[in-house]
Structures are given as C-alpha cells and as structure tokens.
Amino acid sequence: MSEQVIAPRFRGFIGLTTHPEGCAASVRRQLQVVRERCPGSGLGTILVIGSSTGYGLGSLLTGVFGYGAKGLGVCFERPPKDPKTGSPGWYNLAEAQVQASAEGRQLETIVGDAFSNEIKEQTITALKERFGPIDCVVYSLAAPKRLDPSNGTLYSSVLKPVGSSYTGKSIDLRDYSIGEVTIDPASEDEILATQKVMGGEDWQIWMERLADVGLLAPGCRTVAYSYIGPEVTYPIYRSGTIGKAKEHLEATAQHLDSVLQKHCQGNAWVSVNKALVTQASSAIPVVPLYISLLFKVMKEKGTHEGTIEQAVRLFNDHLAPDKSPTLDSEGRIRLDDREMDPAVQQAVAELWKQVNSDNLTQLADLDGYQSDFHALFGFGLPEVDYSQATEVDRPV
Predict the structure, then answer these.
(1) Is 247 a member of any domain?
(2) For each of the chain's 396 residues, which pLDDT tens digit applies?
(3) Helix axes 20-37, 307-314, angle to 10 degrees
(4) CA distance 92 to 360
(5) Cα 232 vs. chain centroid, distance in angstroms?
(6) N- or C-end of the chain: fewer Cβ atoms within 10 A?
(7) Nearest Cα to 205, choosing from 318, 124, 112, 135?
(8) Are 152 and 164 in contact (CB under 8 A)?
(9) Count of domains forming the chain
(10) DSSP string across 354-370
C-alpha cells in the first residue's frame, strides 16, 4: 500500500494523474442523488457494459443503490502501478464497491475488453454462478478502438465529417481561446471503422449471447446511449462519422427489440441523452464550446442536469420495470428534451453568433465546464484536502 500527495496534471483533454479520494468523493455525491430520488427497490439484476465512468457508472449506481439490484459491471480500466495512479474508472468502482459492501449490496466488476469473447464468457460464468437472469442490460461502451474477435481486425474510430470538409468555431482547451478548426472528410474505411467501434454490432452480440444461454429474465430491458445535439454540431457529430455509428446503434435497437419481444417479452431502446462533459466529448472539436454555452443557458433556466440526474430520470421515468417509456417517432427515449427545448436552443444559437476569445468568459460557463472536466479525474472537489497524502492502491 502507498500514499501520495497527487497534483492535477493535464495534457489537452487527457488527465495524466487521477486523485483516488476525489473520485471516491464524486461517487459519494452521485449516491446522495440516487438515495434521495429513487425508490430503493424494484430491480433484480443489472448488467452494465461500460460501467466505470459517465452514463455507465450512473446507471450502475442507480440500479444497485436506487433500485436494489444485484449489479455486475464490465469495463476496461487501468489499476494503479507505482508510481502511476490508476484510471478514474478504477477508483470510481473501488468506491462503489466499498459503499455496496457497507450496505450489504452485491456489486461486482469484471475488468477487461468487453469486445472480446473471453470477457463475454467470463461475464456469463459470473452471472450463472452468482447472479442469475438479468432484468436490465445497459450498454455504455465508449472506446476508441475495437478488436473484432470474429476476424482479428483492429478498428479505430475517427471524429470526422462525412462528404466534405468542415470549418467552424472551436475552443482551445489549453488556453480557452476561440479559433477555427478545419477537418477533412472521412474515407469510407474510416466511416466503417467508426461504425464497427461505436455502432450496435457488439451490443447485438452481447444480447444474442445472453439470450442463447438463458440469462435474460422475462421482460428484460436493454438500453444503449446516443446523442443528437443541435444543428451547429451536426457536421462533426450527427452528420459525421460518429453520427453514422449512432444511426447503426439505433437500427440495432429496433432489431433487438423485435428479438427480445419474441424471446422474453423484453425490449431494447436507445436513450438520446443530454450533452455533458466527458473525456470523449472534450476530444470532439466544436462540442466543448457548445457545451460551455449550453451550460450557461440551462443553469440560468434551472434545467441543467449532470450525469447522475440523467441516469436517475431514465430509470424513474422510463426504464424501471413498472414504467412504460415515452418514445419519439423513431422509437427512442429522449433524455435530451430539456437541452433541445426551442427556447434553450435559440438562446445558445444567439450566444454562438456572438462568442469570441474576448467575451468567452462572460458568455460561456467556462468555470462549470472546467470544474466538471477536472472532477472526471477526481480534482477540484471542495470536500477533499488535496494537500494531504491519499491511498493510491485501492482494490477493484
């Protein structure tokens, strides 16, 4: 065991250090929201694929602590290795398991490549031995690469427009200045690769394998996460390579819904969620600037939600076994309804026209963006004394 005083170090949108106690405090904050807003029971077993950060972590915490489920998470995270700290997701799950143990709840984690056949089979073994059939499967993988187990091909996703180059406003996270970014269009191979990584193929493999071995409980519900966003981000997001992958994800949901209805009278949906600060979103040109402006508007209107508030609303209003979800014309759950409120989008569009390097701090919620970004790595939480050494070796 070792204790260290850990200072924040960042390179662009990459955190070079993680604060274990800061991540633990962040998890405890999320659990406070879950305990205040959820019924405490109602769900048998939840499997979360991609369970360590963001919406996946929020779903796991909501299912286990908010609905009394036995929880199994699958994720790829880096443990601490002297002198390096572990990844944020490692410490998030370490604290989640501490809290679960203290309350007598069943929460386990399988660390490994969720795309691989080996981890799928390891998960199936754990479910058969200690959990039983699953009532809810959340698919929340956000990975830059995928090794296809069927042919050994390594696919890498790209953040590019489709069809033509894109030039637009973007924020430089190194000095928070506004400039223009130009991105060349993706090739057909890059579009396919992004779809292979971020589309619905692996989700379908998981669900069909779980069905084959009899691990889907009657009425099992599964959900995967997506994003649409405003027109200003369409060229780089919804109309770009990521958008093509999300279209594939949504088509997969429709297919899986039909499969599950026949197999166990279950359902499959895509939930379109609100824009939030994540490591993945920080890497997408244009999006951090849009998020900063969006946060400014939504906080002033009192409609802003963080990750855990979105996860809780998803379960409380749509995903819990006794709920009939409200779907849009494409069959999707829309948790982005408050973001896409016309009044909100009009206000953001006006700010988008005006914003530049000189007025950025006045027009955008830069402090909120930066605070959320640092919190991803366990930094900036007022209840943590960062001058004190903290235990780095925390087990998952």
Answers:
(1) yes
(2) 488 999 999 887 788 899 999 999 999 999 999 999 999 999 999 999 999 999 999 999 999 999 999 999 999 999 999 888 999 999 999 999 999 999 999 999 999 999 999 999 999 999 999 999 999 999 999 899 999 999 999 999 999 999 999 998 888 877 778 888 899 999 999 999 999 999 999 999 999 999 999 999 999 999 999 999 998 888 888 899 999 999 999 999 999 999 999 999 999 999 999 999 987 777 777 888 999 999 999 999 999 999 999 999 999 999 999 999 999 999 999 999 999 999 999 999 999 999 999 999 999 999 999 999 999 999 999 999 999 999 999 999
(3) 30
(4) 32
(5) 22
(6) N
(7) 124
(8) no
(9) 1
(10) H--TTTHHHHS-HHHHH
Residue numbers of the domain that contains 332: 3-377+387-391
Q: 3-class SS at 110?
A: strand
Distances, alpha carbon 206 to alpha carbons 43, 116, 120, 121, 211, in Å: 20, 10, 7, 10, 9
- For residue 165, tell me if it sits in a domain: yes
Residue 257 CA, distance from chain mean position: 22
Residue 396 within a domain: no
- HEC-encoded secondary structure of 290-316: HHHHHHHHHHHHCCCCCHHHHHHHHHH
Q: What is the DSSP letter of 148?
A: -
Catalytic residues: 237
With CA atoms as reference, report the closest residue to 31 among 58, 55, 56.
58
Query: Token pair 């779907």 is at which residue?
Result: 327
CB 236 within 8 A of CB 284: yes
Residue 11 dihedral angles phi and psi, to the nearest 5°: -130, 100
Paired tokens of 347: 């206000």
CA–CA gap between residue 339 and residue 335 (Å, rounded)? 9
The verdict on residue 142 lying in a domain is: yes
**Structure-block tokens of residue 32:** 């406070």
Nearest-angstrom CA–CA distance, 113 and 145: 10
pTM over 0.85: yes
With H, G, I as helix, E, B as strand and everything else as coil, classify residue 111: strand
> Which residue(s) pair with 183 in the sheet?
166
Question: Rounded to the nearest 5 degrees, what angle is found at the Cα of 345, between the Cα atoms of 339 and 346?
Answer: 155
